[in-house]
């Protein structure tokens, strides 16, 4: 347990500093697992703590002082940030949701929370992509690979290449059974993404086949060279997924940003845009294409196909990767 005192003590027993107590409560809540989720909530909690300590904040350093009015004031501050163009709606809603989750973890109840972040902010978020994804330029991806190679992050470079050529998520690229995928690529000309998938979408009941062109085969070969001895995926045999994220993946974020790659998920969107163009002969809507006006059936077919390749099985989600139908 991360409790350092009584539950009714300062910060509900999680320590003297608000910035420290929140992450500790989250670690307790997720029982030491779900590393990426804990990290995301913790980062957003720190933004709330900075506001609390700011000139316009309440100055609190004890979660017992936080009430519903405090959260309403924070929502008003975020709403102002949105209006000034300093925050997007999705980021603001995520921050409020993380404050809800962290406070619940600290308190042990949900008595103090924002019931509806979207209503509190007065705006609905949109999941339709309006900005072209990073990583569409293959030369940019090559520069990222070279930079990671120079820093001896070959396994992270393998993730970048797998995400860009197959549309894998970060977790899927890390846990992919590379020998199996290579065999499928050679024998069938396509690969079935099954490891590390979300929502139980694995096994024969949820096939997710992706065409294995030369770029995919090259990415698989590159990844095989980066595999630690005795392993089938990018994790060493005695290495946990969380440890790999913390020790290898997170330290490379700054390098990605310097090379204008926002995150690994952008590579998945870049893959989707490329597939849309291959399937329709038109640029993706977010890149200025308008196939949906010329041939709506073809646009619908491409979206359905891409949704299956990305492991969503829902056409509406594809708009978050390639853009909507304006």
From TrEMBL:
GO terms for biological process: DNA integration; DNA recombination. This is Integrase. The keyword Transmembrane does not apply. Residues 136-274 form the Integrase catalytic domain. The keyword NAD does not apply. InterPro entries: DNA_brk_join_enz, Integrase-like_cat_sf, Integrase_catalytic_putative, Integrase_recombinase_N. One of its GO terms (molecular function) is DNA binding. Coiled coil: none annotated. Residues 116-137 are annotated as: Disordered. Keywords: DNA recombination, DNA-binding. Residues 116-129 have a biased composition (Polar residues). It comes from Pseudomonas vancouverensis.
């Amino acid at each position: 347990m991360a409790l350092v005192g009584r539950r009714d003590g300062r910060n509900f027993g999680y320590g003297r500093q608000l910035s420290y107590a929140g992450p500790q409560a989250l670690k307790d809540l997720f029982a030491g697992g779900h590393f990426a989720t804990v990290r995301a909530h913790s980062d957003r909690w720190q933004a709330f703590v900075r506001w609390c300590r700011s000139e316009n904040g309440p100055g609190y350093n004890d979660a017992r002082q936080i009430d519903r009015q405090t959260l309403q004031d924070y929502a008003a501050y975020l709403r102002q940030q949105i209006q000034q163009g300093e925050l997007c709606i999705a980021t603001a809603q995520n921050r409020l949701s993380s404050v809800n989750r962290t406070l619940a973890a600290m308190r042990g109840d949900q008595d103090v929370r924002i019931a509806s972040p979207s209503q509190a902010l007065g705006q609905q978020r949109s999941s339709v992509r309006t900005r072209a994804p990073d990583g569409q330029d293959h030369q940019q991806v090559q520069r990222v690979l070279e930079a990671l190679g120079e820093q001896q992050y070959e396994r992270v470079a393998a993730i970048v290449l797998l995400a860009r050529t197959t549309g894998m998520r970060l977790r899927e690229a890390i846990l992919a059974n590379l020998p199996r995928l290579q065999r499928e690529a050679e024998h069938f000309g396509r690969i079935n993404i099954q490891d590390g998938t979300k929502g139980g979408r694995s096994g024969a009941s949820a096939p997710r086949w992706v065409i294995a062109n030369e770029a995919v085969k090259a990415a698989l070969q590159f990844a095989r060279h980066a595999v630690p001895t005795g392993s089938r995926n990018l994790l060493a045999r005695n290495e946990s997924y969380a440890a790999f994220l913390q020790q290898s993946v997170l330290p490379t974020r700054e390098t990605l940003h310097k090379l204008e790659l926002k995150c690994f998920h952008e590579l998945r969107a870049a893959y989707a845009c490329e597939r849309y163009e291959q399937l329709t002969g038109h640029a993706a809507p977010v890149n200025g294409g308008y196939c949906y006006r010329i041939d709506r059936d073809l646009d619908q077919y491409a979206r359905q196909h891409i949704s299956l390749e990305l492991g969503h099985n829902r056409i509406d989600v594809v708009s978050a990767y390639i853009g909507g139908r304006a």
